[in-house]
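Hey, quick one: can you model this chain's 3D structure?
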Amino acid sequence: MSTGELLSIEPLELKFPFELKKQISSSLQLLNKTENHVVFKENGTNQKCSFVKTTNPKKYCVRPNTGIVLPRSTCDIIVTMQAQKEAPPDMHCKDKFLLQSAVAPAGSSLKDISADMFHKDSGHVVEECKLKVVYVSPPQPPSPVPEGSEESSSPKGSSTDIGNSSGPDLDSTKALISKLTEEKNNSIRRNIKLRQELDLLKQDGKNNRGVSFIFVSIVGLIGIIVGYFIKKT
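Sure thing. Here's the predicted structure for all 233 residues.
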């Protein structure tokens, strides 16, 4: 875990269970330890600035690519590696990420984030954290048990099988861990999507309140005019 004055970042290594021709995701979590709003931003190849920088931008996709971590809150980020056609030598990866964070004014929204917030020369507080990319071997499926092995095995052979039973058990454990990791990443994606939809609903609610107030005012004015004419007649 990286512990700065603004954010704690977990983990510091983005681990990908490498498989050819398959998209693979890894997650990291940002924890805002302050009472301030902290901003971060990732931009693609068409933008001029980069605040979650990588040495290989075409290879990875970062979501959310822009965000504000509220005081004493967390934010989950999903980094997806595009499907690769070739495996690197010795499964060694030299790719790295640079995550930059800065303090934003209270009440800031996504549209308020600008490149100037991340310029140290402008007097802003900016933190940087380097993240490594690590390839790990994918979990292996459990080894199949040959048919009739129990009938043909002797008591001595059974003892040997028990001694080697840790191999399939270990494979099953790895498969379970991989499944749980994928479920966690799916949950994070759904959480990010719900947050974005909630922000849109909040913005729509503000606009609707303004329209409703105008509508009620017009109806009230018409009622006063009608009442005046009724009394007059």
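One thing worth noting: The radius of gyration is 28 Å.
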